């Protein structure tokens, strides 16, 4: 990559953002618990939470497997060797970040800690701003038209 192209960052922001969101959610849940609609929809939300957590596991597993098979990096700060467009990447350009967001939503539904819900969306927004937009610039610079065509066909999130 030349000096004019975007460079990878130093800090792996996505895991840092989501771990911080989890920690903040737990702390706020302990210090300032919010009311939960569990009495009304408790069993349904609990089941939906477990479905979300199973989706998280499936997304992580298939995304990692697809990236390993494509022989590209798993490091969110590294420049990828190959453009991966198959598997879960054929449905969303960011299956691992989507899985991280679903993790927080699933945990909210299973535990009833409401703070996980707003923090899931804040974490997703922060990840988009500090990681995804930079990654997209790197991919466009490295893969050109091939990446731009892929980005037109596959949504960023879902």
Question: Would you kindly provide a brief summary of this structure?
Answer:
The protein is mostly helical and 158 residues long.
How would you describe this protein?
This protein has five helices and no strands. The longest helix is centred in the middle third of the chain and has 32 residues, at 38-69. 66% of the residues lie in helices and 0% in strands. The two termini are 30 Å apart. With 158 residues, it is mostly helical. The mean pLDDT is 90. The radius of gyration is 17 Å and the shape is elongated.
How would a textbook summarize the main sheet? none
| Computed CA radius of gyration, to the nearest angstrom | 17 Å
Query: How much strand?
Result: under 5%
Helix and strand content put the structural class at mainly alpha
**How widely separated are the two ends?**
30 Å
How many β strands by DSSP? Answer: 0
What is the overall silhouette?
elongated
The portion of residues assigned to helices is 55-70%
Low-confidence segments, given as residue ranges, are none
Task: Quickly count the helices.
Answer: 5
Mean pLDDT level? 90
Order of helices and strands: HHHHH
């Amino acid at each position: 990559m030349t000096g004019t192209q975007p460079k990878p960052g130093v800090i792996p922001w996505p895991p840092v953002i989501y771990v911080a969101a989890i920690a903040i959610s737990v702390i706020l849940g302990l210090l300032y618990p919010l009311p939960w609609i569990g009495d009304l929809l408790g069993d349904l939300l609990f089941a939906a939470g477990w479905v979300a957590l199973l989706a998280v596991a499936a997304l992580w597993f298939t995304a990692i497997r697809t990236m390993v098979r494509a022989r590209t990096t798993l490091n969110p700060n590294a420049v990828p060797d190959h453009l991966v467009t198959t598997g879960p990447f054929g449905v969303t350009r960011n299956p691992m970040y989507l899985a991280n967001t679903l993790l927080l939503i699933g945990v909210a539904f299973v535990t009833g800690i409401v703070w996980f819900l707003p923090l899931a969306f804040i974490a997703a927004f922060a990840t988009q701003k500090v990681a995804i937009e930079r990654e997209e610039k790197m991919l466009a610079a490295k893969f050109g038209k091939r990446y731009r065509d892929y980005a037109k066909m596959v949504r960023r999130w879902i």
